[in-house]
Amino acid sequence: PQGRTNPNCFDYRRYLMSMNIYTVMKASGIDEVYGYSNRFFQITAGLRNQTLDYLEENMGKDEFGIASGILFGMTEYIDEDTLTVFRRGGTAHILAVSGLHLGILYGSLCRLKRKKRSIPFDTSVSLFLLIYAAMAGFTPSVVRASLVILLHMLSIHLDRRYDMFSCLCTSMIIILVVSPNQIYSTGFQMSYIAALSIAVILPFAGEKIKSRYIAPVMTIQAGMMPYQAYVFNYISPAAILTNIPLIAIASLIVPLGIMMIPL
Known about the structure:
The protein is mainly α. The protein has helices at 12-17, 39-58, 61-72, 80-88, 99-111, 119-135, 140-157, 164-178, 186-200, 202-208, 214-232, 239-259.
C-alpha cells in the first residue's frame, strides 16, 4: 500500500497495518465469497446482520443509518453530509462503538443486580459484553473498554483496589502484544487519550466542577482537543455543550437498542 504522500498527513500504509493488512491487489473477478471460519464470529455476525435487516425494514433511511452507527459503529449507511455534521460538532464518537457504549451497557446491567455481586452474574455480563464486542468488530476502543471492565470485575471478586490508570496501561500492553501495529491506529490513540484524560485529569477537574455529568465531558474534550488539532486540523469548542445531551440520549438508545436484538 502507498504510504504518506504529504508530510504529516494521512498514511494509508500505516492505517492498513493497524488492521493487519499488508498487501493490496486488484482482482479480475470473484467466484465465491467466504464468510468467517470461526463459528463464534459466524453467529455474532449473523445476529448483527439480522438486526440491521430488521432496522432497515422498519426505519427511514436516515434513521437507519444513524441507528446502525450508534449500535454497531457501521457508518457506511450514513450519507457524507450527515457524517460531516457529526464530525464538525465533535459528536462523531457516538457513531463508533467505544468505551462509552460498553460503559452504558455495563452500568445498565449492574443496576439489575443491586445486591452483592456474584461470580455467575459477572460471568454472564462478561459473556454478554463479549458478544456485543464481536458484533461491533472488536475495534481498539471496544477491546480496551472490555478489558478494563473485566479488570474492574476481577478487582471486586479478588477484593483489590481498582485503579483506572493501571488498568488502562494493562489493557494497552495486552492489545499491543497481540497486535503491535494498533499503535498506528487513530481509533486506538483517541480511545486511550479519552480514557487517560478521565483517569488523570478528572480527579482534579472534579474538585472544581461539581456536576458528575459536565465534568467528564469537559475533561475528555480538553484532553482530545490537542490531538484533534494536530491530526484533523480542527477543533470543535461546541463539543463540550453538544456532548452533554448526546450522552444522556445515548444512555437510553444503546441499552434499548441492544435489548431489541434477542427480541
